[in-house]
Amino acid sequence: MIPFRCVRFWLTTALAAVPALAATPGEPLAAIDDNWRHIRSPNFELYTHAREYESRTLLHDLELLRALFLGRFKLKERAKLDVTVYLFRHLKDFHAYAPRGMEQSDTKGFYQASPDRAIINLAPIEDWDGAQRLVFHEYVHHLFRITEQEPPVWFNEGMAELFSAIREERGQLEIGQPHIGRIATLQTEKLLPLETLFSVTHDSPIYRGKAHAGIFYAQSWALLHYWNFGESKLPKDSVAKFTLVASNPQLAPPGFDLRAYFKQCFGMDYPDMVKRLERYVSGGRYRFGKLPIPEVPKAASYAARPVPREELRLRLAELALRTTRSSMGAFMLVDAAAKPGAEPRIFEALGAAAITDQDPAKARDRWEQAVAAGTTNIAVLRELGLLESREWFQEFNHDFRLPLESVERLRERLTRAIQLEPEQTAAYEMLAWVEAYAEAPIFPNVNVVQTRFPLLRQQARTLVALALVRARAGQRDDAKRVLGDLDKLEWDDWAVNAGEVVLAKLENRMPRRRARPDNARENTAEISADAKNFGPRLKVPSIELSEELLTAPAANKQR
């Protein structure tokens, strides 16, 4: 298993403590020569030092996994992050660009995400199935992240294990092939109680410690494998109903009893399911599923070209900075950034490094340079707008007004990010606050936010912004009605008390501090075994702009 849950541990290593990379003779970094190729598929780019056939096959397999995952879960990318893959010819070159200590392990690849880009770094592929499992597992985590899903750790890891074993066979895609290493662990170690398995977080000793990590991964895989492919005789609709809620805790109302719902779906309690699972892993038949192969462009269609040394130096300097905090990599990028006509990607990488160094001001400066250089990286545009927005909107102030220059810049950044990535959520939420604090709100922008409201993550806080826009436009009754819907949403202390300030201003009184009521849980839908009762959000207020707001006079609009 890839030990990269805590990749940031390596990234925060002091620069002085990072050993120099083993440089190619006459070159500042390792593996720089004229034999690299760049291959681009629809959703990946690959810098490869390996044979072209295996390079194209790797990209094609990643495209298949992406299409299968998004299709099966009916998910959309909401926080797009470009992925660059590096495939090395020699193990020593791979280790030169891997976090410290990895050369002591058997790990032959890893995935790492930064705010601007994700990378997959691979050693020479000797064991294709092993390399695929390793990379696919981590890429599934990437897919959960970019679709803005936050499943519990057991579901995230279990699904990553299931999808890591897909393979093309006789015109079909096989999924859920048994994991021999996991089965061996399950047959020699005691299974965890399900209440323990379901409650594990990224900070849990079981997840972070070596003693129990193996059984946690293995049991997470086995439980999902048993439910989906084993001869469990469990009704498929019961499995679907439980996993829908168990994998999306945000869909359930406060106070939801997962164990009671488990009994309702399966007709048994946790210990009974563990006994079944024990029998399955000790002597079960490990079947797997077969699915139609998703339609993706053929490997032969991917564009390929040789990589000039000048470009390769920058890409490997970027990789070295991201993965080892290399001082040489940083120097090369800073030097290149100072030259006329520097490419946007140099500034993007330097901005990401600044975020790792917890220097958001420096990151903003570097990403502003990337924008000036013409970046088309959606993640940079999104993150740049969010960085500035968070600086302005951390604290609520009813009477605050954004400076005109900031309003125009944020509007341009956020609306552009939305145009390039309409399925995201954060930019809509920040745009609502830009209009709430603008001297002259642009109401069509407010309407854009409202059309996406049911899918937003920060609904309660966005609702306050939408109410504030109405209050400032003289729509007092409409603003009160909107604020009245706050109690229908998941309780948020910040949003509720900010909303109380707006309401007090409308009613010409002093605001009252509101505490979470004891009956807050009663403001939710009742639990039913019918999975259709769990929607994107249990309670979504109906919000519509009045005709008066939509046809606001020109004086209320920015030029």
What report would you give on this structure?
The chain has 559 residues and is an alpha+beta fold. The protein folds into 3 domains: 172 residues, Glutaredoxin, CATH 3.40.30; 110 residues, no CATH class; 158 residues. Helices cover 51% and strands 7% of the residues. It contains 24 helices and 9 strands. It has a 6-stranded mixed sheet, with helices on one face. A hairpin with a 2-residue loop joins strand 6 and strand 7. The termini are far apart. The relative contact order is 0.10. The N terminus and C terminus are likely disordered.
Structure characteristics:
3 domains; Glutaredoxin; alpha+beta; 7% strand; 51% helix; single chain; 559 residues; three-stranded antiparallel beta sheet; six-stranded mixed beta sheet
